[in-house]
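Before our next group meeting I need something from you. Please put the record directly below this note.
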Amino acid sequence: MGAAISSFCCCWPRRRSPEAVPYLTDDVLAEIFLRLPPHPACLCRVSQTSRRFRRVVTSRRFLGRLHDLHGDTPPLVGFFHNHNHGEDKRFIPIGVDGFGTYCRRRRAAAAGPGRVLAPVDAEWLVLSCRRSRVLLLSPDRLHLLVLEPMLGRRQYFPAPPAPEYKPTCFSNAAVVSAASGHDEFRPHLFRVVFVSSDATSKRSTVFIYNSVTFRWTKVVTADMSSVIDGRPSVLIGKILYWHLISHGIISFNLETHEVHEILVPADVFDDVHEASLNIVVPKNGGVGLTAVSGYILQLWTLRNFTVGASNWDLRKIVRLDELLPLRNARFTAPPPQPSTTTKQPMVWIMALDEDENVGYMWTMVGVFAVQLDSMKYHKVLGAVCRGMEIVYAYKSFFLPAASSAAMIM
């Protein structure tokens, strides 16, 4: 027993106060913390050590250096989803290094991450995840919530006012950064772009909510061939893109407030309605589109478009059953496809990392992160997303408040 206690004490030394080590100045601590993996779980544990450590990792100087060191792309923390919404397990974390496989033992150890939604928000639908923020819509579709899980901050506000917006309309929304400045230095400022489509007239109206003025602004109305669907937006530069139910694409320029409809390639497979389509961000710039049918993936890029016409180039065709380790898997009946087709796909893209052009592909053996330019991949989750149509990739740099530690611990 004594040996066991001695061994335990060697593994877990008694915590010493940072003030008891005078040579560890704030600058030295910052240099040490900058060399930790940028995943929030690492800085979360640092922030819980003492008030001094928390002050160091949440200072503007440290965050600025962290931002410069790791670029503009925070690491993936996990996925939000709307599958069985109403339960408190709405968040699926990945490993600390960003490449771990999700397992039951890790899920039991990470009981907190699923409880990021308050009980009053359990029925709310996730619409968007971007830059440490999550946008949710109330069940009556009359209120919105911008949640910042890493900060424990939540901001409620009404949806665009009637009669312009009616709860019976098709709608979707996205949360984006403020008009200028990094989120790390202007943490309270954001914008929400809300698109409402009238099912009868096929007219789409765009509203913008500004967290500075706490007001909605109706910016533009345009005729479309269809209504907006429920898949998440993709931000490319200053332009937001959503899918239309008719397999078209709606684009909205955040600066000029111009709205356009882009037609998808007419010759995607034999029938465009049999393919699972997703907007992507090709390496050479512009707008890309993936089409997955069976195990075949096609990658298209948009050359140009005019009213009523779009020109696409087919850049790549990939056999996913040869790329991904799927051949030895015991296949069972897959969950329903997120489109209106009756065919059941074997693979589809559940989410997109618009910063890295990484598609998170659902397969029967797990979820793979596939870099769509190089086609390099790694497995991020086991078969825990079975039955889920869409997930929302959540990325963030840090967790400054110890009170929010349960988010990722």
